[in-house]
Each structure stands twice: as structure tokens, then as C-alpha cells.
Amino acid sequence: MTFDALLKSAAQRLQLAGSPSPRIDAEVLMEFATGRSRTWLYTWGDSECPTWEHARFDALIAARAQGQPVAYLTGEREFWGLPLATSSTTLIPRPDTETLVETALARAGTPTGRLLDLGTGTGAIALAFASEKPDWQVVGVDVRPEAVALAADNARTLNITNATFLVSDWFSAFTLSSPSASSPGSTFEIIVSNPPYIAADDPHLGQGDVRFEPRSALVAEADGMADLLHLITTAQAFLSPGGWLALEHGYQQAPSVRQALKLAGYQSVESVQDMGGHERVTLGHLE
After folding, report:
1. What does the alpha-carbon distance between residue 196 and residue 193 come to, in Å, rounded to a whole number?
2. Tally of domains in the chain
3. 121 labelled ligand-binding
């Protein structure tokens, strides 16, 4: 079969399987399976596909039709223009999370500073910010050693040298290593996080790519609010004077997060909309 015919057939199969972007999925998997660019496929799509490439592509399409995320099948996802290695041990970076990066950059008003990314996963948020602010020191932490190793590998691959990654259960590494939370080594001008915020009974957990992502990175107690509330309370000890806390959350959680920040004494509390017009990030700062 020709590449064009294979792509058409694969896209139809993925559409029947419920993929939200069947043609794009097929093209990305074809690029990965054959090592040929999308430009080549558009130009020479009437060429015959070699048997072994056909077989590899078919296997990938079969896995995608079963719901396996494209990012896990290819081992890569682009975020903020950066190609990031992915794995099934971490969340897949999503475009909506770029809102959190934009929010942090807008509050980085000094030439230098320190940013902490809690629950860093692939390192997407930390590395995106670090790539834009090379004179800032960026620290990303995650409770899973395999996630920290992945994020560090991404930093090395991208040659981003102002980001480091540590194993830490939220702030535990700083609490254990610092005699007091006010020491210079453990305070930050900006703290960001995309924590678990989905309720355990949310029906979306059984749909789409989320089915294959680590549940521990998705689900929180108290109807999805437990980790958000914990970070709002504990982050205060690790923020520099005037420092900002910015949190990603579910599209219906903004009012609750704003209220929690205000009750905890944060100032200038506001929410920021994502590309879909949903309130996705809420932030506040300390005096």
C-alpha cells in the first residue's frame, strides 16, 4: 500500500475508535514508524510503504485504537516548543498547562530569582520557564524518582542548565535539608504547581488518554481539592517576601481556590483563563 492509502485507512480506524484527532494521530505515528517527515509524506505519499514500516505503523495504530496515548507510543510530546521525552510514569504535558508558564513569566519581574515547580513530572513547566529565564534558578521536584530522572534527562537533552530536579514529597526535601524554612536556600520568588486535582469519582478518569496516565498524579481527596489546599497552606513558609504562588486546577475549581488563597492571607488573588476560556490557573502573593 502507499503511504497515502495507509494514512487514510488508519485515520478512519482511529475515528471509529473515538480518537479526537484521528488524522493528526495517524500522521504523527507514521512519522515515528517510518522516520519520514510530514513534509516528505505530503510530497511522496503515493510511494509504496516498505513492508517492515507498514507492520510497525499497523502495530502503533492498533495500540492507539485501544486508547494508548500517542505521547506514550512515541515517547515524546512538544510543550512550549520544547520536545520532551515522556513515559507512562508521568502525566502527558498538555497545552492548557502553558497558561501556568505564561502566568509565572508575567510575575517574574526581576532579572534573577528562584522558581520552584512542585510535582514536575516530565519537567515541562520548569524547563519552559527556565528556557525563557536563563538567569533564574529553577528547581523541579517530584515524589517519584523515575519522574525526576526523566525531567533531568530532558534538561540535558535540551541543554537547559539553570534547572535542577530533586526527589521530594512536595516540600519535604527542603524541610529536611534546611534548619529553617526562612533560609535563603529554601525560599522562592515564585512557586508553581499542577497538582492532582481530579475527584476520585470523576467520570473523565475512564475516558481518553487519562485512562493510561498515573492515577496518583491525577486524583486528590476532598473532591480533588486536598493537594491544592495543602499547597496553599504550606507554600507560605517557602515563599520570599512578595513571592507568588500559582496553581493549575480544574475548570470548575477556581472559586474554591480563590477563596482558599484569600483565607490563607494571600493578596492580589486572581484566576487566569486557558486557551479554551476556562479559569485554569489561580494565583496570589504574600506581602
Report:
1. 9
2. 2
3. yes
CA–CA gap between residue 188 and residue 237 (Å, rounded): 10
- 162 annotated to a ligand binding site: no
149 and 56 together in one domain:
no
Q: Is 195 annotated as a binding residue?
A: yes
170 is in an annotated binding site: yes
Taking residues 43-64, what's their average pLDDT?
A: 95
CATH of residue 56: 1.10.8.10
Q: Is 206 flagged in the annotation as binding?
A: no
pLDDT tens digits, residue range 215-248? 788 888 888 899 999 999 999 999 999 999 999 9
Is 154 one of the annotated binding-site residues? no
Q: What is the pTM of this model?
A: 0.89
Q: Is residue 26 included in any domain, yes or no?
A: yes
- Going 273 to 249 to 85 to 238, the CA torsion angle's sign is positive
Give the domain range for residue 263.
Answer: 90-285
Is position 78 within any domain?
Answer: no
Q: Answer yes or no: is 197 a known binding residue.
A: yes
Helix, strand or coil, per DSSP, at residue 267: strand
Residue 123 labelled as part of a binding site: yes
The reply to whether 179 sits in an annotated binding site is no
